[in-house]
């Protein structure tokens, strides 16, 4: 979202810079009006455009893995606990999204407040209906302005000025200038933080006055009339006849006429438009030689790439799932530096997103966003782990007999199905997040750290691969565990999963495969006993 907003601001800045330097002083007012409206719309659309021939196509595989679940036990206690990464927090957490929505609400209230005051002004004014417009005579006022098909004029305005003012405001009414200003007023609600929107509205209001001045029959005393003092109402979406800030500009423009060749200046915007399309459509960072970077530079470069994808709608969790499937490696394999830091930066980004969404609190997990060991430290640790694994025969992968009807049918990975299986509590919220939360809640309610495992100081990571069948039942494919006690615990835990509504893909029920990494963890006291 931040990247999209930044692109909108950059586009508007470039377009306004062209207007300010080349077009603002020309008398092609209708062209300028169209330019301001068109470039405003373009600046909002460009960040969302995806032009295929500007982009590098990357084929990415899908993954079947969801968030890791950590199960823990306290030393010397019979109670067991569970910690689930990305478990939803019931406590409200203020985020930048909330700040943005509050801003939108404030500016929406201000907008409707202006409409209310305008309506109040109508109520107290004397109404006169004409075929082309409705006139409102404001008591004890010298104001003169128009809005939509309504012409407001103070009763204290001199009669000899009435005709010129009316003709001027009728141009605004006939050319629908109020719609332009209302458009910018609505944009101010949703882009209230962007100062360039206010400039767009200001320039549009100027253009409207120049157009009206240009299109009426100007009498000799029209310039004198402009210089008379009229009252103004505080409505940013109305066309006011008299504006002190515009007075000098309007008089200058009354006596100026641009050469036809000056229209060629509008062509200057075209190459800038092409550059901005390239800028917005390219979602790939320029390839760099990662091997030439030091560790910190590589981590930052990789993090920025993932952050960019996240801002375009692909969450860190989705990116991590794809990376896990793409970078499949054995337990006894040392990852490359690039792959290692990719996993590290995605875990960091996933933690940051969870904090931003209020799923978890940073105060409860202060180390979540901190990066881990360096690559050299990782290699040293991994070599030691591989050596330990060779000495140990405890880590086993237990294969389970999957029903033939499941093996003979297509199985769709978790991240690919159109609709994930549904727990009873997910009937209304049919999202993957709800599915994951309910699965974690099921484990939380049914988990007990095996007493025998606590006594024997057994801990470690268990990988369970399973299928949720078309009838909603669970079928275990394989469990990889460091000990049979933990393998049996996970098997029993998963088989207690209630029958779900099956996954749906292309409008039909399908078998869905997925896997979960589950870590059994003893507290520090238990770890100390092991040592």
Automatic annotation (TrEMBL):
InterPro entries: Peptidase_M56, TonB-dependent_transducer, TonB_C. Residues 434-529 form the TonB C-terminal domain. Keywords: Membrane, Transmembrane, Transmembrane helix. One of its GO terms (molecular function) is energy transducer activity. The keyword Iron does not apply. The keyword Secreted does not apply. One of its GO terms (cellular component) is plasma membrane protein complex. The chain crosses the membrane at residues 6-22, 34-54, 98-116, 264-282. One of its GO terms (biological process) is transmembrane transport. Gene3D superfamilies: 3.30.1150.10. This is TonB C-terminal domain-containing protein. It comes from Flavobacterium piscinae.
